[in-house]
Each structure stands twice: as structure tokens, then as C-alpha cells.
Amino acid sequence: MVGPMGAGKSSTGGAAAVALGWRYLDNDVELARTRGRSARELAEDGGAAVHAAELAVADAFFAEPPPLVATLAASVVDLPATVERMRASGRVVYLQVPVAVLEKRIQGTDRAWLGEGPDALASLLTGREAAFRGCADAILDGTASTSTLVGEIVALAGAWWPAGPTPRR
User: Fold this and answer.
1) What predicted TM-score, i.e. pTM, was given to this entire model?
2) Measured between alpha carbons, how far is 58 from 87 in angstroms, rounded to an integer?
3) 3 state SS for the chain
4) I want to staple 17 with a disulfide (CB 3.0 to 4.6 A). Which of 24, 39, 44, 91 is the partner?
5) How far apart are CA 97 and CA 74, in angstroms?
6) 25, 95 contact by CB (below 8 A)
7) Residue pLDDT, tens place only, 59-82
């Protein structure tokens, strides 16, 4: 599952994994576990350090056997080679959310750190929108309720793997 911060990947991904009876892997949790620091703390070392750590987490997720639901950092769509590995390892769901909604969701949280200017989120989303769309097997409205999104993901999983999940490899 991909999308910008605040799209609802963690809450939707966790709930979808429970509904499907699959393992759940979350970028933020794994980043903190493997690096001993959150993305916000890693940002003290610069954006390149955050992205390198996020890509390492993504690569580890791509190597995991199915079935699972994995929520990935938005930065995974920045490198074509990473997108290729992601698409080769399974199906990709993009949670699309308008910038105005994202701004409200991250306001007052520790996630509002990605840029110092008021337009940082809009700029990042605009820059990644085509990549999110291009890598996605399905684009879901991230403003829908978690239960609606989970229902859509369960239906997609059933259509993609009618006999049970298997990787694309």
C-alpha cells in the first residue's frame, strides 16, 4: 500500500491484514525497530538518511513471502528500480487523498515535519502523484472510512488471488 503520509495507510493496512488473516508490515514500525529511531528522528541526519532507511525497509518487505499487507513510505515511488521491485513482489494499492485533507490529518502530529514551508506537502504530493498512479494496481479514495477501504481491499484480494494469494514473481 502506498500513498503520502496521512493517507491512512497504517490504519487501513492493519485493518485489511486482520480482515484477510494475513501478516501486516508497517514502514514506520519497522523503521523504528531496525534503526532505533523514528523517521522524524532520522530526519535530523537529513532527508537522504530517511529515504535510504525507508528504501531498506521496503526491500526487506519485498523479500517477505506472501500473503501479507505492507504499508510503505511515500518515498518508495521516487526510484524506478524500487517501483519495479515493488510491482514484482505483489499488488499495489494507492490511497489517494487531497492535499487539504492530508494537511488536516497531519496537523498537530509529529508527521508535519517533511517540509518547513506551508506548501511542502502539496509540492511533494504533486511531484509523486504520477508515480503513485503509475505503480498502482488499484487507486482507492483514502477519504473513505477504514471499513469501506478494507471492504474494497478484501474484494480486490479475492479478485487478484481467487485461489489464495501468490506472488507475481
Assistant:
1) 0.88
2) 12
3) CECCCCCCHHHHHHHHHHHHCCEEEEHHHHHHHHHCCCHHHHHHHCHHHHHHHHHHHHHHHHCCCCCEEEECCHHHHHCHHHHHHHHHHCCCEEEECCHHHHHHHHCCCCCCCCCCCCCHHHHHHHHHHHHHHHHCCEEEECCCCHHHHHHHHHHHHHHHCCCCCCCCC
4) 24
5) 13
6) no
7) 999 999 999 999 999 889 999 999
